[in-house]
Amino acid sequence: MSLTVPPSLLQAAESGPVDDEAFVACVRDSLPYAWQVVSRVAADLESSDADFADNVVPPPSETERGQLLRALASDAIRSSLERHFGVKLAFQNCHRVAAFRLSAVDSDTYRRFVSVRGQLLNQSPELRDC
Length: 130
Known about the structure:
7 helices; globular
């Protein structure tokens, strides 16, 4: 299961559209490691002039790795995080999460990061089973 959904939020979803901030709060509470990583790269980006900021530190355990994978593999979770933080997220190797400025999504830097070449160059034997 990806999220621990409070009964009130499930009830709201059964009745109609759900408030984005309520969903983001559910993500924050359910996937704290993923929230921490995304929050950090978004804050690092905001405090710099760079086009992107990224996390290159592997998760400390499979539990945290699973949280990151669940957060970024879900279109609903990922897009909610992107709207909440005002960034475009990119993902490689089960741990390398980058936050890009929205204005940089059409840049060479972004295209390199999400390219097949970028993915291949970011591989290493120790990450094979991630």
